[in-house]
Amino acid sequence: MRSKLSVYSLRKSYRHGKATANKNITLEFNPGEITALTGHNGAGKTTLLKQIMGIAKPDSGSITYRGISLVEEPQRARKFISMMPQFHAPLVGVTLRQAIEAVARIRGISRSDMKHNIFQIIHDLKIEDWLNVPGEKLSGGLQRLTSFAMTVIAPPPILLFDEPTNDVDPIRRIIIWNYLRKLANSGHIIVVVTHNLFEVQQYADKYVLLDRGMIIQDEQTNTLKKELLDSSLLRVTCNQLLDQGSMPEHISVDVREDGLEWNIHLANDQIPDAIGWVLREIQNQTIVQYSLSPFPLDMLYRGLTDG
After folding, report:
1. Which end of the chain is more exposed for a tag (fewer CB within 10 A), N or C?
2. How many domains does the chain have?
3. How do residues 100-114 score in pLDDT, each as one tens digit?
């Protein structure tokens, strides 16, 4: 049976216990699965990755893989895990190719395999044209892609990515996620920190929402997608204040401060009555614009946290 990465009751604080980054985090990460970690800035996502990687030690709790404690033996973590940090290391004095080659050598790839593996990665990421460009002359997006390639060359069983698509153009964002899927399909454990909830919806298998160091939600994204498909968002723009009492019963409304824009969360069986109400208000010339769409993940996220 392929090994899971298990995190149990993990707690990490800073400033002599005055600031808690992670509080009683318990998670399982499975081979063949892409797990997305999301949450506000400061929610504890990067701190969790650093503890898994063995570069930060938890105050309490355990991290185990293949029966080995990665807390007690952090040097073993670095054999099992590769991590793409949030901020890439400066690529000064080396070309894109040389940066990737350096990591390949550290991981013990033979010279013959190295050439093939590097060619395959740069081809998949579509960065061949910059292969011999000095790192300091690469754009931010290309430096990010170089960091990604350095992480996945000769990939170990566990791969951690901290906001890998930041600064990357829309086409290569898709390429990165497709590459992550290929790695997952070959049995790797993939953990991705991201703020892009639309990418989470589309590409991740599991979704973990952190808020103030605690897990707010941990579930498969197909369950989340079903929840979202079972509800809709009605956006209404008015030219004057409306009486909420005129609306159909049992409908959740979020009204902007000026009272002229409404976000209305609807179960699918509430849509006909809600649209009937909108059409009546249009005839009364109180609603000037409306739209109906599937309920977005980012609004669900805001509803589960404070913002």
Report:
1. N
2. 2
3. 999 999 998 888 888
